Batch of 2 targets.
Target 1
Amino acid sequence: MEITQPTLVLNKTVCLRNIELMSEKAKRHGLIFRPHFKTHQSIEVGNWFRNFGVEKITVSSVQMAHYFVKGGWNDITIAFPFNTLQHAQLNEIAALANINIVFDNHVGAEQLKNKLKNEVGVFIKITTGFKRVGIAHNAFSEIDRLLDTISLNPNFKFKGFITHAGHTYQSKSKNEVQNIHFDQLKKMEALKERYRNKYPDLVISTGDTPGCSVSEYFKGTDEIRPGNFVFYDLMQQQIGSCNIDDIAVRLHCPIISKQSYQNEIVIYGGAIHLSKDWITNIDGKPLYGRVVIRKNNEPILLNTNEYLCRLSQEHGVIKVSPNTFNAVEVGDIVEIIPVHSCLTAHAMGRYLTTKEATISMMERF
Amino acid sequence: MEITQPTLVLNKTVCLRNIELMSEKAKRHGLIFRPHFKTHQSIEVGNWFRNFGVEKITVSSVQMAHYFVKGGWNDITIAFPFNTLQHAQLNEIAALANINIVFDNHVGAEQLKNKLKNEVGVFIKITTGFKRVGIAHNAFSEIDRLLDTISLNPNFKFKGFITHAGHTYQSKSKNEVQNIHFDQLKKMEALKERYRNKYPDLVISTGDTPGCSVSEYFKGTDEIRPGNFVFYDLMQQQIGSCNIDDIAVRLHCPIISKQSYQNEIVIYGGAIHLSKDWITNIDGKPLYGRVVIRKNNEPILLNTNEYLCRLSQEHGVIKVSPNTFNAVEVGDIVEIIPVHSCLTAHAMGRYLTTKEATISMMERF
């Protein structure tokens, strides 16, 4: 298939290797592997996980749960403080599959009183330091109050405690990730210890991509839910979760203009394709993507002095050396390695796999 | 219609007023009004322009031109250095409507040799200082070379010079915008003067939203192409192009969590809904949106000390005062005024109008 416009190309070989490595790690440590599907949002990519024994998945919205129920998944955690306004949609999917929802406050849990028609599993969201959502790991009176509310709803089945150590994404080294990961596990282990007599089946669910990628220590958790590892990206590579070669998606973009007076190449490919997430480059400036060009049909990864440095709605600007400037021409295709593959995949809405098939994602919302 | 998940609400009254004011300004100055439709990307919103006499439009991609041709528009400029790999799609739409394309280099123009089946208008892209794409306004040998290439293709009809003073978006005051606007017009006027004998019908096309919004001086241009003004946003309000009340879109989001220990409210509404564009707030930190809450069903615009301060894929975090914290509850809807409405509209893919109809946008790509 000829590429004529911004196209997200998915390297199936790399993607399968990422899935295999993570599922083997989960097996090695006796963990439930419940991968987060919000990164790829695709029934077809989801099916690739089945060969590795995956039966339980994580999603981030009721709509996404609905999409994967249609794709034949039967055990789904919606890992997001439940939006109680969507109780009708929850009833719809909970009639078809085993659904777990998440609460970090008793108000939401109370709002579902008399609203549910089917049993749903409930996890209590805990924060061990990320502090976006979640009850603090040691705020026992809040936890107990929520447990009481849960126990009063006959359609709620308490499953355990869930957390996301999202602060690993701010780490600048594997060591830093390991520290956060270890600290999180210790706190969750103590929580399990406190509540295991009353709830002998309770599950501790953890697992951000950085922690799951760099660590071989998982004592204190029962289940991991990494998502981004399926594709990885430059943010993960900067943290140390992966190498450049582990990144499974690249946005292929036509060159539409060259500005010789400032050695800039302009591509058709902008914020609506890549998203505007960036990392800080070695020169202290925002980097929106790294660049692969072809020279005599050989791929060449440009170094970090030559990078995607500006994005507008549909334009991307690549700063290059005079040599690179002269090596490419208007009408050539360059490949952009994305900073945040979850947002790029969501923005693009479909993939071209390296097996040359176009595969689809869920509809927007 | 009850809102239960992130929903982009379009205030039709405000939007129509924005269209009316800009179309009247164009009439007052005897200008062709060719609004950019990449902001709303909707046939239905596009139709609202027809009552104000608009017959010519601007788009940013061949796909968008195709969508609006299907919507009955017959005079369309694709204001983006033409991506020559899409020549087949260009032939398809140029058979159905009058299409203008843009070049800023002779290489692209040469690549269409023997590729076109129908006449297309051609504008030469000029930069007067923005320096993203375009030939410098005084690089006459480059301009002449491109004019020669254009003249050799019997399906090219040279139309004129087009520019986008995108550097007005970096302005911090109306004065700064006026200066850039005036400078641009002077440069384009000189260009017209130089080439008008050879091309007596040549059109000068300008018109970013800041310049068109703040200025009443348009000598030197024949056509304006603002786009964002249809909705406006916080970026435009910060520049001085509009007031808060002129912003026609708001993202309505449910509250899903409250973090009392840091006075933060968490909404279902993140990067995939709003995009990650931000402006610098008065406290020097990134602001991703301003917030309207309801108190006794009355809308209250929070001040800039209480704002959308962090975004992840689907979460948004609003920093508030203790008073505001206590005035809202999980399950309430808050309204977010977006930083960059073009990207928010694109991300959301449809609108709920205040007349309670859901209206559609073009498909993703």
Target 2
Amino acid sequence: MRVLASDIAEHIGAEISLSGWVHRIRDMGKITFVVLRDRSGMAQLVYQTDSMPQLGLEYVIGVSGRVVANERSPGGAELEASVTDVLSVADQELPFPINRDPSECSLEMILDNRILSLRNPKLRSIFELQSSILGCVSNYMHAQEFCEMKTSKLIGSGTEGGTGLFTVDYFDRKVFLAQSPQFYKQAMISTGLERVFEISHAYRAEKHDTPRHLNEYVSFDVEMAFIESELDLIKFEQGVLADLFERLSAGESEILALWGASVPDPESVGRIPVLSCDEVKKIVSAASGHPVYDITPEAERLICDWAEGQYGISACFINDWPRRSRPFYTHPKSNRTTMSFDLIFRGLEITTGGRRINDYRMLKEALPRFGLTEAGLGEYPKIFKYGCPPHGGFAIGIERLTQKILGLTNVKEASPFPRDRKRVSP
Amino acid sequence: MRVLASDIAEHIGAEISLSGWVHRIRDMGKITFVVLRDRSGMAQLVYQTDSMPQLGLEYVIGVSGRVVANERSPGGAELEASVTDVLSVADQELPFPINRDPSECSLEMILDNRILSLRNPKLRSIFELQSSILGCVSNYMHAQEFCEMKTSKLIGSGTEGGTGLFTVDYFDRKVFLAQSPQFYKQAMISTGLERVFEISHAYRAEKHDTPRHLNEYVSFDVEMAFIESELDLIKFEQGVLADLFERLSAGESEILALWGASVPDPESVGRIPVLSCDEVKKIVSAASGHPVYDITPEAERLICDWAEGQYGISACFINDWPRRSRPFYTHPKSNRTTMSFDLIFRGLEITTGGRRINDYRMLKEALPRFGLTEAGLGEYPKIFKYGCPPHGGFAIGIERLTQKILGLTNVKEASPFPRDRKRVSP
């Protein structure tokens, strides 16, 4: 029966089997230590050097033997290897130093060798944490009676205009890859589902290559009916994040420690300040000593530093964005401002959301302001023409959230196979 | 405080508020009955006709009043409406009969009017059930220590050849929409994650338009290391399905009843026969009275009928597929056959899977048989060159599973916004 590497100390004195990858080999003369890596962690194997099978780094083996206590071994035990079965040999010209500290490697090198660099336990752990994020938020949403949906990513026309869309050859016509499920999540709440969420890929054909952007990312989208303003959405998102942080703190402490990271105290999420765009500009102007006219990346960092000092959490909800800076479907708050918000977390925008226009006449009146026509929106206006409740929603970028939880420098590190202008492989 | 329609009988005698859509209006002379629909179900409102506000079908309203018992009302109670707030008016030229039995409508009519037809509670319930399926399988996989991953759908080259791929204009080059995460799930298990799953969209540029096919579908993909043969995968899939059927049976009995459907007894999943291709052909030949040379859709139906009679469940695992009918990466069992399987459920293939070749030399030797070269496979061979454990996996089509659980005629009914050769909207 196979035992996982992290569990061998529970089997001292017993004959067991381990399976995994050869992570490190140290020839000590009469004996040789082999560190075996599996999904749970590492275990040390002890071989008599003269009777040892031919092994190399990254060989996949099954190995049987007796577990003995050894306080100098990782986990306090090691396996005296008796029978070794080589399941797969590995070319020894490894193009990536799998068993070394990845901070020695550039991001280019890590991504160019992605199939091997993901074998590094620290780099791999990013996606173990991301898996927990996906599982936690999905669980939370189902428990809150949200309906999980999977909507089409192939759209006949762009709701938010044609810029930034990738084109797909679809039989004898052109379609686009969806930038967000905005249209569909509004359609679904209007069907009477009232509360929907989706975790799927979204696409942005933006040419800039920054540490904040991916051309393909995973978007956690939420939409809910019968709200009054963006403040209902902010409150809901606080619930999502508090639950997530609580679960990660309890369940993923090892990965957090590996990265020297921690999640905010769940209780502190309720203290995240909600400030209008104008208030943020004032605070950031004062903090930076020069007037700030826009919520720039620098302003996002400064307001989080300020919130950390004032409220003990490096995050800020910014609401009351100007109409001109938000999409046409955003519900106005005044003639100039909207019921919209962003969440800035540890200096980076991880959420955009807001109440949407649900009144058909209000929507029609808003369109000319944005240079749009009802006909140009395809089926979208039908959502509102036949009765649609007050509603709104938001989206969280899963890679950005992962990045900011672990303190990664570049969002690409948080995508297993990131896509940018130049990178489409592996 | 808002009460959901399905809960009003718990509030008899109390003043409450409901919110939802006007589903039906019946003017009885002095009084008028209005059926209100919300995400939980329906509730009856009673108005004095002469003091009733102007309402129409699909208006969205908030309504307050006193709950009174009435055994002729749905749920045994109704609301004597006092204050009504119209939240959204609806055009009364409804292009789809939302409050009628959808079996009166053609599939074309349902899909052409998707934004409205999803308001029909029976049609909407398909996606409430699908949401439960998504939540249940995700929960199960996380509990089984599988890592949930989200891999790129934009691929530089097609692992399984260039046919059946949609082309995307990606900046100054062409890429393809992934047909499956096959490449990535094998890469991820080889990193040491060992057990991965993904629930994401997959794309097939196939021209045929049948009740079994979608050009964009949701694929639940599983891959696991350290297996011996496809029998390990079959056993694992039985665990997934038994858990799913148990949860749906307990949690979604209302939707199942609405469709006159039921899930198989979870205990019966362990009895699903595992038959080789050759055995299935023999059984189907005998059952149909004519020789059967291929596992055609008719054969899939007949073998399920046979299994229903023999084992009490309309399902069959078919293994030992010929090498020529499976992809190049399928692990051989003999010179002629492979360690592969399909699951046929209620007459339809809902799963394809198998053990994969994990040995680099075996892979290289297999390629010429399929007219492939190592160079033509891009980064794929790197997964095996540097040590890869024995592994395999399978995929379940979420729409097909939904279809077969509810007994829907066409798989398009189980996609909220299906894509076929002609349909890219809404």
